[in-house]
Each structure stands twice: as structure tokens, then as C-alpha cells.
Specification:
The complex is a heterodimer of chains A (367) and B (210). Chain A is α/β, with parallel strands linked by helices and 367 residues long. Chain A contains 11 helices and 18 strands. The longest helix of chain B has 14 residues. Classes of the chains: A alpha/beta (367), B alpha/beta (210).
């Protein structure tokens, strides 16, 4: 029955809470030959829309999923198989996929839950995906006001080849909201503490925005613990920053205040969904968050300019490969001059808006 | 505790939110889901003013995701439960679920309803309601209490006063009738607004020809 030449393209799982998604538009048709990494379709989830890249090579024999229909994670979207596989065999796979869908067995898999460790008296929440392999594990560090879920397009695909940890920095997500002095050293100590707690000697570190400066501080403090640095629109290159956004985000208490600010994070403002605004408001209402964000503002800003000096940190790091990636339409931390970097088509949230390109840069760095 | 549906007869099924909302100096919270219930209760405890915290009897079994940590939801900030461009439905307490059910059915018929839950009736986030009506041009208020001098008539009157120019149809109020809540099961069921009554009111507003 199972013909190994027949490969299914299935509904991806983007982030812990994703249960269903729907195809907005197919970019390919039946009969097209697709290659790994080709854009297949745009998919919309409750939280965000993204582009599905082909996980396989070969002729696209059948499209199973119609646009506009909500389908559970794991549902068969399309069938890829070489031309010599007879139509009957393809039809059998399609029929099996439909039966699987009707049976309702999909989407009921066990939820992967985040773990918590105590580091320097703070509880730190983190999510681990993947299995320990030959290479060093990867640790993902989010930015100011973000959390581990912002890696939804990155962590799962990366976990196919690496053990990947994503943490909530102090003051963020489900971690404790006390940030102490809020300094880079304090935040870096949380990342190093996590490496110790999960028994990782050396890791590839990936950081976005404030998280980029944090992972650089980790590398400066303990270069032998760091296999590589991937810095996504990191804080601290040059002095320019949208200080109004940063202060506004820390202060905003209602949807009316928050929503217009969030548009500045993206090149395409339609990425700011009601769900995104609601999730951030829920975070901001937690006790201690406002104080944490205001303390961290002091780390990020001196007046209206950036307070962090990343080149000074990176000077202390030798022998660690550093990759810098920037969204060319970043309005929060504009693309700096005189820094060797790769550009992707996105705003500040490049790992959401140009996830597949960012993923490629990370893969190139982490091997 | 408030609201009908528990077969508890008139005196134990009343919706007196309007009475409390009428009194200056009192704050009134009426959560429609577990997340709001925790956040509003914490805000109520921390507030120095007297707060009437109105728990709907039929919502005690509702389940939903609630953070373990402590958090508070500011008073006077409405929740946009669902976005839509064709009609604004403002609903309170248990009626938020009824309005959402109606909106889902209406969407299948091509009518996109925006559902707004004020969460607190005093203070009332009239601004969010007005912004929505400016966009949709139609307002349906759903409240299970009696219609005279009620939240429904109050919100309706405020919108008529502040956003008359935006309205493309008469404001529709979906409420219980002006009677005590009946004790007979069949009559109590008829008393409480359901999704079909909301859908009827929305269609009246959408189909309105001047």
C-alpha cells in the first residue's frame, strides 16, 4: 500500500497554539514540478499568515486542500510523486487522506508544554523542540516585549535537524517578571543559566533585537559556550532607534494605544492581527510587566538614542562566527551603515515576516 | 449573581445592572468569560471605589484559558470579541456568547458582525462602540434585562446622540420583555434573547431602506 515514492505535503504546525490553518492561495498547480524550498501556498492561522515552502522535490500530482477551508495540523494538503507512480496509487493516498480527515483523528496530538527552571531566583520558562543530534543545540532569544512564541516559524523547522531551546527572558512571556537592574549582563546570565540548567556546554545562539544584544553579551562573557551568533536586527548597531515606539510600547495600556504602534514592527501592517494585539495586551496586563519594560527601556535607550554598543561587545568575542540579518524596511532599528549584513524583505519582525529567508540564514550558520 | 436561565423564578433571575449603573460613584463589572472574570475581579479588589461585580449565574461552568499569574483588566475598556464591517453588536454578560453565536451564523450568510463586550457598564467604553458604529453604520444592543431605562436603551440613546450621522438604520434593541422573569420553563426560555432574535434584529438593520 505505502509507496515510498509518494510524499505528502501536510499542514505545518506554526507555534504551540496552532491547531488549524487554511490555505489562502496556492502558488503552484497540479502537474508542476516543485523543489525543496519553493513557495507552495500562503497559509493563514488564527494568529498570523505565512508562506509554506515545499519540504520535498518532485511533480505535484494532486492538490488535496481547497483554499479557505480550515484544516487541522498534519492534514494532507498535496501529494508529490514521480510521474511513473500510477494515478490509482495517488488516488488511494488522497482517499486515505480524506478518510483520515473525516475520522477527526488529526489535531488531537499531545501538546508540547514549556518547562520552567529557577535561575538566580527567577523562574525562566523555555520550550525545547527536537532531539539532541550531532551538532550543538540552538538557543533562540526574543526581543523587547516579545516571547518564545515569536519563533513559531523558526523553532519547529529548525528542530528537524537540531535540538532547539527558546526561552522567555526575565520580564517576558511566562518567566518571572522581576528583571533586577535590567542590564544586558542580567539578561545574559539568564541565558547562560538556562544552558547550565539544560546541560548544554556550547550552543548556537540566535537573538532578535534586544535578544541580539543579549546573545552577544553571552558570547562576550563566555565565548567558549557559543558556537555561533546569528543576530537578527540586533540592538546596538548605531544610535538610531524609534524611541517613540519603544516608550509607547512600554506605556500602552489599551488596544487603541497599542495597535497603531505595532504596525511599525512590520513592513506589511496587515500582519498586525486582532489576535496579536490581544496577546500582547494580555501580556502587558500581567503584574510586574510594566515595571519590567520600563526598567529595560533604560538598557535600550539613552535619551532618544540607543544605549547599547554592540561593536564593543563583539570585539570581545573571537573565534565565534557572527551572522547579521536585517529587514530592509525596519522602522524600529533602521538598517545600520558599515555593518556586514544580509538583507531580507521585511520590517523589524523579520523572523515573522520573512521567516523562510531568516531560517535559511540561520541554517547556513548553524550547519 | 445575576441573570435568567437557572429556573429560579423572578426574584432570583433579575438583571439589575442598569440599576447599579444608574448610580454615580459605583463601578459595575460584568465579565462574560473566565479571563475577564479574573482580571476584572483583581481590578475590583484593587480599586478604592465601591464596585458591583456582577457574575452571571449561567456562566459559572464556562471554561477558558486563564494565566496563572496575577493580572488586572482596566475598567472602561471594551473587548472587541469579533471584527466585522456590516453591523455592530454590543452585548453584555451571557449575551456576549449569544451574540457571537449569531455572528457566526450571520457570517455564513455573508453578513460580518462586529461583537463588542463592554466588560464594565460603569465606566462604559462608549468610544470603542462609537468607533465601530462609525464604520458599520448599524447598531444592535443585546441585553437580557428589561428594556425600560436599561443598558440597551442607554447605549442606544448615547449612540443616537453621538453618532446619528453615521447610522444607516434605526438602532435595534434585543432585550427581554418588560415583565418579571417567568417561572415556567417554556416562558423563561422565551424571555431570554437567543441567537435567532439577534439575527432577526441584525437583518432588520441590514435590510433597512430609508
Amino acid at each position: 500500500m505505502a509507496d515510498e515514492r509518494i510524499q505528502r505535503v501536510t499542514m505545518p504546525k506554526w507555534g504551540l497554539s496552532m491547531k488549524t490553518g487554511k490555505i489562502i492561495e496556492w502558488f503552484v498547480g497540479e502537474g508542476d514540478v516543485v523543489g525543496k524550498g519553493d513557495d507552495l501556498a500562503d497559509i493563514e492561522t488564527e494568529k498570523i499568515a505565512g508562506t509554506l515552502e515545499s519540504p520535498v522535490d518532485g511533480p505535484l500530482r494532486r492538490i488535496v486542500a481547497e483554499p479557505g477551508v480550515d484544516l487541522p495540523v498534519g492534514a494532507t494538503l498535496a501529494v508529490v510523486a514521480p510521474a511513473e507512480v500510477p494515478d490509482d496509487a495517488i488516488e488511494a493516498v488522497v482517499a486515505e487522506a480524506r478518510a483520515q480527515l473525516e475520522s477527526g483523528e488529526l489535531g488531537g496530538e499531545d501538546e508540547i508544554a514549556p518547562s520552567t527552571v529557577e535561575i538566580d531566583g527567577r523562574s525562566i520558562s523555555y520550550l525545547t523542540l527536537g532531539e539532541a543530534g550531532a551538532g550543538d543545540p540552538v538557543v533562540l532569544v526574543h526581543g523587547f516585549g516579545g516571547d518564545k512564541n515569536s519563533w513559531l516559524f523558526v523553532q519547529q523547522p529548525l528542530s528537524e535537524t537540531h535540538l532547539v531551546h527558546a526561552l522567555d527572558l526575565p520580564g517576558h512571556g511566562q518567566s518571572g517578571k522581576d528583571v533586577g537592574d535590567g542590564s544586558l549582563d542580567t539578561l545574559a546570565a539568564a541565558v547562560l543559566g538556562l544552558l547550565d540548567a539544560v546541560g548544554v556546554g556550547r550552543a548556537h545562539l540566535v537573538g532578535h533585537s534586544l535578544g541580539g544584544a543579549v546573545v552577544a553579551a553571552v558570547a562576550a562573557a563566555a565565548p567558549d559556550r557559543v558556537a555561533s551568533l546569528t543576530l537578527l536586527a540586533p540592538a546596538g548597531f548605531g544610535a538610531a532607534a524609534d524611541a517613540e515606539y519603544l516608550r509607547g510600547f512600554a506605556a500602552a495600556a489599551s488596544r487603541r494605544e497599542l495597535k497603531p504602534l505595532l504596525g511599525r514592527l512590520f513592513a506589511d501592517e496587515s500582519q498586525v492581527t486582532r489576535q496579536l494585539v490581544d496577546d500582547l495586551l494580555r501580556y502587558k496586563r500581567l503584574d510586574g510587566v510594566s515595571a519590567a519594560l520600563h526598567t529595560l527601556l533604560g538598557t535600550l535607550l539613552a535619551g532618544d538614542r540607543q544605549a547599547i554598543e554592540l561593536p564593543a561587545l563583539l570585539e570581545k568575542v573571537s573565534g565565534v562566527p557572527v551572522t547579521v540579518v536585517w529587514g530592509d524596511e525596519d522602522r524600529i532599528l533602521p538598517v545600520p551603515d558599515g555593518v556586514e549584513l544580509a538583507r531580507v524583505k521585511a520590517g523589524h519582525m523579520l523572523h515573522l515576516e520573512a521567516a523562510n529567508d531568516v531560517l535559511r540564514h540561520i541554517r547556513t550558520t548553524v550547519g | 449573581m445575576w441573570g435568567a436561565g437557572l429556573r429560579a423564578a423572578a426574584q432570583h433571575s433579575q438583571s439589575l445592572l442598569s440599576v447599579f449603573t444608574h448610580i454615580p460613584g459605583l463601578k459595575v463589572a460584568a465579565p462574560s468569560n473566565p479571563y475577564d472574570a479574573k482580571g476584572l475581579l483583581i481590578a475590583s479588589i484593587r480599586d478604592d471605589d465601591p464596585v458591583i461585580f456582577a457574575e452571571h449565574k449561567m456562566l459559572y461552568d464556562t471554561t477558558g484559558e486563564v494565566p496563572e499569574e496575577s493580572y488586572s483588566i482596566p475598567f472602561g475598556e471594551a473587548n472587541i470579541v469579533r471584527e466585522g464591517d456590516d453591523v455592530t453588536i454590543v452585548a453584555i454578560g451571557r449575551m456576549v456568547g449569544t451574540a457571537t453565536e449569531a455572528a457566526t451564523e450571520l457570517a455564513a450568510a455573508g453578513i460580518e458582525a462586529e461583537v463588542i463586550d463592554p466588560r464594565t457598564t460603569s465606566p462604559l467604553d462608549l468610544e470603542t462602540i462609537l468607533e465601530s458604529v462609525e464604520n458599520t453604520g448599524r447598531l444592535v444592543v443585546v441585553d437580557e434585562s428589561n428594556p425600560r431605562c436599561s443598558l440597551a436603551s442607554d447605549i442606544g440613546a448615547s449612540v443616537a446622540q453621538e453618532a446619528f450621522g453615521a447610522l444607516r438604520a434605526p438602532i435595534q434593541l434585543v432585550t427581554g420583555p418588560h415583565t418579571p422573569v417567568p417561572f415556567a420553563d417554556s416562558l423563561e426560555d422565551l424571555f431570554i434573547p437567543d441567537a435567532q432574535k439577534v439575527i432577526g434584529a441584525v437583518k432588520t438593520a441590514v435590510d433597512w431602506k430609508k
